[in-house]
Amino acid sequence: MRALRGFTLIELVVTVALIGLLTAIAAPLAETVVQRGKEQELKTALMNIRDAIDAYKDAADNARITKNAGDSGYPPNLEILVDGVLDKQSAAGTKIYFLRRIPRDPFADPSLQAVQSWGLRSSDSPPSAPEAGKDVFDVRSLSQGKALDGTFYKDW
Predict the structure, then answer these.
(1) CA quadruple 80, 86, 88, 94: dihedral positive or negative?
(2) Mind listing the pLDDT tens digit for each residue in 23-75?
C-alpha cells in the first residue's frame, strides 16, 4: 500500500511566512505608487487651472471679453472659467469657455466640491501670504502634506 503524500506543517508555515514577507515589502511600494499618481494628478490640475486663468486674462487684455475699469482682467471666480463669458468679437454672441470642468485637488477632503478644494490667491495679495479677494490670480492646494520630493503641496 502506498502512503499518501501531503504538505508538512513546516512547509505550510514557511510558505505563509514567505507570502507575508512579500506582502510587507510590496505594501509601501504600492503606497508610493498611489501617492505618485495623486501628485501627478495635482500637477496636471494646477497646470490646467492656471492655463485657463491665463487664457481668461489674455482674452480680457485683448478686449474679447468685458473688463470693467479698475478690474485686473483676471476671473472673478473659478466657476466663470467653466460657465464661459460672452465673446465681444463674435457677431453671433457666442461664449468663450476656458475649462470643461474644474478639476479637484486629489489631496483635498472628498466631501468638498471641486471648486472648494482649492486655495485662491487674488492679484493684490503677496505670494508669501496668498489670500482670496476680488479676482483669482492663482490657485494652490490646501493640503498640508509633503510630497515625495520633500516640498509641500501648498507651495506648488
Answers:
(1) positive
(2) 888 888 888 999 999 999 999 999 999 999 999 999 999 999 988 888 899 99
Query: Mean pLDDT over all residues of the chain?
Result: 92
Q: 3-state SS string over the chain? A: CCCCCCCCHHHHHHHHHHHHHHHHHHHHHHHHHHHHHHHHHHHHHHHHHHHHHHHHHHHHHCCCCCCCCCCCCCCCCCHHHHHCEECCCCCCCCEECCCCCCCCCCCCCCCCCHHHHEEEECCCCCCCCCCCCCCCCEEEECCCCECCCCCEHHHC
pTM, full prediction: 0.81
What is the phi-psi region of residue 5: left when phi exceeds 0, alpha when psi lies from -120 to 50, beta otherwise?
beta
Q: Strands 85-86, 95-96: parallel, antiparallel or unpaired by DSSP?
A: antiparallel
